[in-house]
Specification:
With 655 residues, this protein is mainly α. The protein is built from 33 helices and 6 strands. Among the domains are: 103 residues, Alpha Horseshoe (Serine Threonine Protein Phosphatase 5, Tetratricopeptide repeat), CATH 1.25.40; 91 residues, Alpha Horseshoe (Serine Threonine Protein Phosphatase 5, Tetratricopeptide repeat); 126 residues, no CATH class. The longest helix is centred in the C-terminal third of the chain and has 17 residues. It is elongated, with a radius of gyration of 30 Å. It binds one DNA strand of 10 nucleotides through helix 2, helix 4, helix 6, helix 8 and helix 10. Keywords: Repeat, Transit peptide.
Length: 655
DNA sequence: TTAGGGTTAG
């Protein structure tokens, strides 16, 4: 096997590779770097140089050349050679260097070789080999311990990492805990589900005077929000009192955006621009803010941020560009997403996936598959994530044959073992198409444990195809996995209601009550002049609620004149017809649309976000509303987009 | 004279 041209990215350890041997090109590199073979320092300098220029393989080859040319050069060149083996994730090369270190007497006595050796084993995903070596080191100094601790974090052995840190505190004076050790400790505590770890580390660094260190505090900010306490308020408190740099602002905004707190993210962003003390907008923060817009469906704000991206000349930037694509597609403007996508200069696999997903969630399965084909033509090899996008697109568009085709091609042609996400798409696709037994069969043959999303997909399919028996099987599994999710109870009770099994409906409702499960109320939100307005069913908390209700009344009258008949079949309570009709009139999406209509002109686009599925009556109602009022309405619900235009739902995935 | 480091984006 030819040695790889570039080392694997450090954050993505790959499998062991063959030891690179010196090649003509690396000897050429040697020549270019003017190594003086007789000077030992010249060899180590060449290895270090090549490594820092990103060519770990050439660095290793140079070391191998030194072995033959000048044995005296090995001692200083060994640590950088070990780091090269780590960067190339070449365990075979690393093991040979380990043997050499033993032969030269550099291990375990030389701390420089020792720390580099641990680093190598951790980067090659061999934490237990690192541990064995670590245990042979008689009196590991703080640098070695920190190398060990960070390696544990890299390999997801966070508790081992924290144990080392605790031992570090206990063993000696606290002065051994320096900036590097504290950074590692906080990065570990961000990955641990226990509450209070971050707070106790916080107390410790305050004691040893690292509380003013921006790097350490930024890492702490992150671990407050991501660690066991999941405490964004604590993170905000730290943020408010610290000396903030650009990373602090970006981190806090990103934390809000990632946790769905879009209003907070956007608010903090404008605060940063106004009172941030000279902190300037950059690519990182724009990506985070675009994520917040995508989540909130804040298309107007998203457009403003996009303008900012253009002004800063960042349209071609792959990170920002992909965020723009994601924002537009999540806000229902898939054509705008495509325009932004075309502007990205060096599209990576995630840019392509974002675009495939964009078309997919809008039900444009054909376009999604065309983008996929284009990606393959460009020479990129689809990976695990790409196939999630592709299969999800097939599932949303109801492309049964294509879905089956790509599912098997993924395994056979591309050697990718399907994960829960792929199974989820396939179960959804097969289930919706009515192939319930095939879907159930697929679940039974899964090698990984089916998660709630899989059984949930089967359960929804059971509702569509009115299969009570399989629904009960799915629910049983779902309750084993998560008995507190109200959604499953609602679905099950709906399935019983549609089958007229009112006694069972009552039984489920009784369960919900006795188990103390709370169902989050559904809401619809609409953005107006950059401000988001929220509506619940029958909501009267809005400032203009009186106007909204009377507007809606008149609108419903006009709709009924145009032929709209309330679809009371979707009301799953045991009510009489009249009660059912009035229950439908105050659905949150109708309130939100009425409010948006009052504040818009014909020809405009109304964009609504719904946190639950849009009911079939509201779906019908929107068709009439678009016809009467000449507005385009886009509703994004839990699973898909509905574009209503000219009285038609152009969403092809309403199948 | 060759060691250990983390946080922000899709």
């Amino acid at each position: 096997m030819a040695p790889p041209l570039h080392p694997a990215p450090a954050s993505n350890p790959q499998r062991e590779r063959d030891v690179p041997t010196p090649t003509t090109s690396s000897l050429h590199a040697l020549f270019l770097r003017a190594v003086d073979p007789s000077r030992p320092a010249s060899w180590s300098a060449a290895v270090t140089d090549l490594l820092s220029s990103g060519d770990a393989v050439a660095a290793l080859a140079t070391f191998a050349a030194a072995v033959r040319a000048n044995p005296a050069a090995l001692r200083p060149a060994l640590p950088p050679a070990l780091r090269a083996a780590a960067a190339a994730t070449s365990l075979a090369a690393g093991r040979q260097l380990h043997l050499l270190a033993l032969r030269l007497g550099l291990f375990p006595s030389d701390p420089y070789s020792a720390s580099a050796l641990l680093h190598m084993y951790h980067h090659c995903s061999r934490p237990m080999d690192a541990r064995r070596a670590f245990d042979e080191i008689p009196d590991p100094n703080p640098v070695i311990v920190t190398a060990m601790a960070s390696g544990y974090v890299r390999n997801n052995l966070v508790y081992h990492s924290l144990d080392l840190f605790r031992a570090m505190i206990a063993s000696d004076s606290a002065s051994v805990v320096d900036e590097a050790a504290a950074l590692v400790a906080f990065s570990a505590s961000a990955r641990v589900p226990d509450r209070g770890v971050t707070a106790s580390l916080h107390a410790l660094i305050a004691k040893i005077g690292l509380e003013k260190n921006a790097g350490v505090v930024n890492t702490m900010l992150d671990s407050y929000a991501k660690g066991g306490s999941r405490d964004l308020e604590a993170a905000r408190k730290v943020f408010d009192t610290m000396e903030r740099d650009v990373v602090s602002w970006n981190s806090m905004i990103a934390l809000y955006a990632q946790n769905g707190m879009s209003a907070e993210a956007l608010g903090l962003y404008s605060k940063m621009l106004n009172v941030g003390g000279g902190i300037k907008c950059n690519a990182v923060v724009l990506s985070a803010v675009l994520l917040a817009c995508a989540h909130a469906g804040a298309i107007q704000t998203g457009k403003r941020i996009h303008n900012q991206v253009v002004r800063m000349g960042l349209e071609e930037n792959v990170y920002v560009g992909t965020s723009v694509v994601d924002m537009y597609s999540k806000c229902g403007r898939v054509e705008m997403a495509n325009k932004a996508f075309r502007k990205i200069k060096e599209k990576n696999i995630l840019s392509w996936s974002a675009m495939i997903t964009g078309y997919g969630i809008h039900g444009h399965g054909q376009e999604a598959l065309e983008i996929f084909a284009e990606m393959k033509r460009s020479g990129l090899r689809p990976n695990y994530i790409t196939f999630i996008s592709v299969l999800a697109a097939c599932s949303h568009a109801g492309h049964l044959d294509e879905g089956r085709h790509w599912y098997s091609a993924m395994k056979q042609e591309f050697g990718i073992e399907p994960g829960v996400e792929h199974y989820g798409c396939m179960v959804d696709l097969l289930g919706r198409a009515g192939c319930l037994d095939e879907a159930y069969g697929l679940i039974k043959e899964m090698k990984v444990k089916p998660d709630a999303a899989i059984w949930g997909a089967l359960l929804s399919a059971c509702r569509i195809h009115k299969n009570v028996e399989l629904a009960e099987i799915s629910v049983k599994r779902l309750f084993e996995l998560d008995a507190t999710n109200s959604g499953y109870y609602v679905l099950l009770s709906n399935i019983y209601a549609e089958a007229g099994m009112w006694k069972d409906v009552e039984r489920v409702r009784f369960l919900v009550k006795t188990r103390g499960i709370e169902k989050p109320p559904g809401y619809s939100s609409v953005e107006l002049k950059g401000k988001t307005h929220l509506f619940y069913v029958g909501d009267k908390s809005h400032r203009q609620h009186k106007e909204i209700y009377s507007y809606l009344e008149k609108l419903l009258e006009r709709m009924q004149e145009a032929g709209y008949v309330p679809n009371t079949g979707s009301v799953l309570h045991d009510l009489d017809e009249e009660e059912k009709e009035s229950a439908l009139r105050i659905h949150s999406e109708k309130l939100a649309v009425a409010f948006a209509l009052m504040n818009s002109v014909p020809g405009s686009v109304i964009h609504i976000i719904k946190n639950l599925r849009v009911c079939s009556d509201c779906h019908t109602a929107m068709k009439f509303i678009t016809k009467i009022t000449e507005r385009e309405i886009i509703i994004r619900d839990l699973q898909r987009f509905h574009h209503f235009k000219d009285g038609l739902c152009s969403c092809r995935d309403y199948w």
